[in-house]
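Hi Y.,

Following your request, here is the sequence exactly as I used it, all 345 residues.
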Amino acid sequence: MPSGSGVLVLAPVGRDAKVASAILAENEIKSHICATLNEAVPLLDHAQCLVVAEEALISSDRNQFAYWLKHQPTWSDFPIVLMTMRGTEIDKRLAFLDRYLIVLERPFLASSLANSVRSALRARARQLEVKSYIEQKQEVSDRQKLLIRELHHRVKNTLANVRAMMGATAKSSGSVDDFVRDFSARIVSLADTHSMLTDDYWQMASLHKLLESELRHYDTSDKSRVVLEGPNVALIADIAIPIGMAFHELASNSSKYGALSRPQGRLEVRWSVSNSQTERIINLNWLEKGGPKVEQPRRRGFGTTLLEKVVAVQCQAKVELNYHPEGLRFAMALPLRDTRLVPAY
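Below is the corresponding structure, written out as tokens. Let me know if you'd prefer a different format.
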């Protein structure tokens, strides 16, 4: 059926179809003439009304047509303008059409046909409004279900992260005060990342904002002291949370033992995005210089474990920690996943 031809006309005897179509055209109603009922039925899904002569239905196999009408969606009552002969009863074989019919007796005025079709089109428009409303409600319901599932998933992961942080912080703390300070800082970092994700409809967080969030706690008034350089990249929640935690550990370590612990220290974080045959990859480099001489740590702390285990495994990233004497160097090749947790409407 041509685009915009919402009215099907089926009147195969004589000139009825051409006359009806011409009347509708004069009233700015587009139509499409069908030669047989078999031709019309496949077009019903995209039509808004059927204008049909009674004899066209009586002389055709109506089973497929009746099946289509019976199995319409719950919101649909497809309107049919049935042209009959004046003074005759509608054939009993067409009783299955009763609830859908607008009966137009021939001969009729051109205005009668135009008004009957307009009435049918108004009815169909109302039905389509109901369909849209139902679909919108379903979309909202589906999104709510999805968000609830994501909430359960996020809470479970968060509690697991908190438990791991608590245990690791307790092992690495020399005193209760150290434990409270470090554990609180890690909780705040985790909460900040969650806030970014919650504020964004798509449940995604900007890589640049994650870095800014972690480094804002340190003296960065000298713009040349901390350089963040790279394209705008958004991370889905399952990646953003461990990456945010990783940045917190790197920044915290730098403020205690690295470049950010000295006024003359400098930090450069640069990243780029490359494309492989199957995925996009963020290549990020964290480079410190101007701080104390760096030495290989004697024991593995929570930060090292997070970078080398959690980020590498959960985010499927390739990470490299280099304790260069002039400053810590961290490199990460992170595959980008763009599966959104909330569908786009």
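The longest strand covers residues 266-275.

Thanks again,
Q.
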